[in-house]
Amino acid sequence: RQVDVGQTVAASMQAPILFLLAADLTKMKVNANIDESDVGRIRPGQVATFRVDAYPDSEFEGLVSQVRMEPIVVENVVTYMTLIDVPNPDLRLKPGMTATVTLEIARRDDVVRIPNAALRFRATDDMFVALNLPVPEQPEVGRGGNQGGSPEGRRRMMERFQNMSEEERATMRQEGAQRGGRPRQGGVDEQMNAGGRRPRPVTADAVPTTERGATTIDALFAPLPATVTRGEVWLWVGDELKRTTLRLGITDGAFTELLDLAIPPGTELVTNISLAEGALTRPTAGATSSPLMPQRRSFFRR
């Protein structure tokens, strides 16, 4: 209440405030500033988790309700305000608290995953020499880096395509459509003509905004495309190192989703090699060295 009984209320250019209604603190919002490099993957309805300094051991959860279009520029850093609805039934959260937010942009359940350490591992020539194995030749890369440009590459991709199931073929066609009508890594499709060339894709007419049936700007955002990448892992098969290329999905930083079962679940992957004492090897990828210190070879002991 802003006034008392008997008080004179005068209004000139604006209406006087008689009562001020308090906000419902059991339903709060988190104003998150999302960097411009990440805002393209934010959609309403995504799950958000955050922590506050007042309760460092507790994790709170909410849902993204809105992504503001107006940019916020501070010292040439562009961010976009994102509103997150958070229930607060026990009133532990107070207005003005600082939160550290984590947004879940994709989720997969019951999938085969591989450790990212296996994707980072790279076998060097010294490792092959120390293991008494022949050093493999580096694969030749044609013009433009398209591995499917050679006849041998097209033949292998054709055999692989014929051995795929209908679901895998549909997924491969979808990937090709997302990349402008060209399958990844020289993939093949049933739409190729007799000359081995792909017809130009037909672009559908854009649907006007007024005909999409959207009531808010957030409803116009297209769904996130499926994340599909490629990576290499090394297997230890028959006392030999074998390199295998895999199709990968989303990752949480520690593990990555495996899309195609080129290797069955439970297969042992090489993440590191420790050589016996006296075997020389170069530091693996990711090892740091100072340019001010002399370079030395390292000894690894099992």
Helix segment count? Answer: 4
Mean pLDDT: 75
Q: Radius of gyration from the CA trace?
A: 28 Å
The N- and C-terminal alpha carbons lie at a distance of: 76 Å
- For the biggest β-sheet, the strand order reads 1-4-3-2-5
Largest sheet: 5 strands, antiparallel
Structural class by helix and strand composition: alpha+beta
Q: Estimate percent helicity.
A: 10-25%
Overall geometric form:
elongated
The poorly predicted ranges are 142-148, 181-196, 281-288, 294-302
Order of helices and strands: EEEEEEHHHHEEEEE
Q: How many beta-strand elements?
A: 11
Would you kindly provide a written description of the structure presented here, covering whatever features stand out?
The protein has 302 residues and is an alpha+beta fold. 12% of the residues lie in helices and 28% in strands. The protein has 2 domains: 27-104, Efflux pump adaptor protein, beta barrel domain (Elongation Factor Tu (Ef-tu), domain 3); 113-137 and 145-201 and 226-281, no CATH class. The protein has helices at residues 116-120, 125-130, 151-162, 166-178, and strands spanning 27-35, 47-52, 55-74, 77-87, 99-104, 113-115, 229-237, 240-251, 255-258, 280-281, 298-299. A hairpin with a 2-residue loop joins β3 and β4.
